[in-house]
Amino acid sequence: MTTTLITNLTEVFTADAAHTVIKDAAILLEDEKIAWIGSAAQAPAADTVIDAGYRAALPGWVDSHSHLVFAGDRSAEFVARMAGQDYAAGGIAVTTAATRATSDYDLTRLLMGRAAEALAGGTTYLETKTGYGLDVEEEARHARIASTVVDKVTFLGAHLVPAGMDAQEYTDLVCGEMLERVRPYVQFADVFCERGAFNEAQSRQVLAAAHQAGLGLRVHGNQLGPGPGTQLAVEFGAASVDHVNYLDDADVTALAGSWESWDPATRTGAAGTVATCLPACDLSTRQPLAPGRELIDAGVQIALASNCNPGTSYTSSMAFCVATAVLQMRLTIEEAITAATYGGALALGVQDLVGSLEVGKRADIQLLNAPAVAHLAYRPGMNLSGPVFRAGALVVGKL
Ligand SMILES: N=CN[C@@H](CCC(=O)O)C(=O)O
Ligand SMILES: [Zn+2]
């Protein structure tokens, strides 16, 4: 066993249940795990001592929603949107055409580049989805490639009905042969339950088949208008419902109800459906920001994620999401960081492994080139990303 002490930290934001902040702190690592956190003055001896240079530390981001397996460019669509055109699900087809025409080698290289970009920004745990393949061979190929690069893979065959195909026929394919082929590579399945994508009956069919196949569930819900997505997610016990821009009182009540057996003070009990807010996407599509403040106040556990994809949110910057959540969604800095770390872990079911800095957890730690984590929102748009540790190893930057 090797011990490493990271010391001279101005503050450590742990993202534990009490949002504990330790000033003038140090963190002891034993191999890949956190063994001790406390005041630097009381730090135990270690084999190696690393001087953090009076930076603040926080957990690595857990980005629980992205679509990184893609090729091609949709900047023209973005330009048109900024000129007043509405976002429509149909844009997905443009990426599908470009991605289908890209080799395994190039697609892997593109995905690895995006994952490296996220890591450099402090993301130490990453989920990504399929959903630009939209036929059996391509969805299986994208799932296989994703499984070699990211931590969790979500099957999103139910992203868009491909041109020329009947919606019911395609839904049957997603729930049958496609699901079977992607199954070895994925842990979750998702459905884009929205006008222009999959309706309630089709979404139900997808969720039921994925559940039957033993997958965790997620739903893209209530992104472009009111709809059944959120309530379906709760009904099926989905790990998360993502977007949640257009919620009514019944949706919020259903989400809150799913957390009734969860004790937020001890973070124990039965987890409900995490509401994942995607503020970078909301800005890029000019949708109303998800009601993160109201959801937290109602007792719902929320996550913040990048939704990095070429259509609606071409950024993997979790720091940008955190700053937006504080400045525009009225979250406190502690709530926003916790949603982007522990909340993401909860949405992926890995909260015992990552998402907070606590003894026994994996040492996924990002340092900020700033003395306090508040700088993430206080200095929006500035690149404050410093050295990053993943599983106890320094993987970004030098110290
Ligand atoms: N809403 C559905 N899917 C993606 C966008 C996909 C695209 O436009 O390429 C999203 O999460 O925003
Ligand atoms: Zn998405």
TrEMBL record:
Annotated organism of origin: Paeniglutamicibacter gangotriensis Lz1y
Entry EC number(s): 3.5.2.7
UniProt-annotated binding residues for N-formimidoyl-L-glutamate: Y132, N309, G311
GO molecular function: imidazolonepropionase activity; iron ion binding; zinc ion binding
Protein name per the record: Imidazolonepropionase
Broad class of enzyme this protein falls into: hydrolase
Chain positions recorded as Zn(2+) binding sites: H65, H67, H220, N307
Pathway(s) it belongs to: Amino-acid degradation; L-histidine degradation into L-glutamate; N-formimidoyl-L-glutamate from L-histidine: step 3/3
BP GO terms, sorted: L-histidine catabolic process to glutamate and formamide; L-histidine catabolic process to glutamate and formate
Binding site for Fe(3+): H65, H67, H220, N307
Keyword Iron among record annotations: yes
Top-level division of the source organism's lineage: Bacteria
InterPro entries assigned: Amidohydro-rel, HutI, Metal-dep_hydrolase_composite, Metal_Hydrolase
Pfam family, one: Amidohydro_1
Compartments in which it is found: Cytoplasm
Residues involved in 4-imidazolone-5-propanoate binding: R74, Y132, H159, Q223, T312
Cofactor(s) it depends on: Zn(2+); Fe(3+)
Domain Amidohydrolase-related: 57-370
NCBIfam families tied to this protein: hutI
Assigned keywords, A-Z: Cytoplasm, Histidine metabolism, Hydrolase, Iron, Metal-binding, Zinc
TM segment ranges: none
Family: Belongs to the metallo-dependent hydrolases superfamily. HutI family.
Known function: Catalyzes the hydrolytic cleavage of the carbon-nitrogen bond in imidazolone-5-propanoate to yield N-formimidoyl-L-glutamate. It is the third step in the universal histidine degradation pathway.
Main subcellular location: cytoplasm
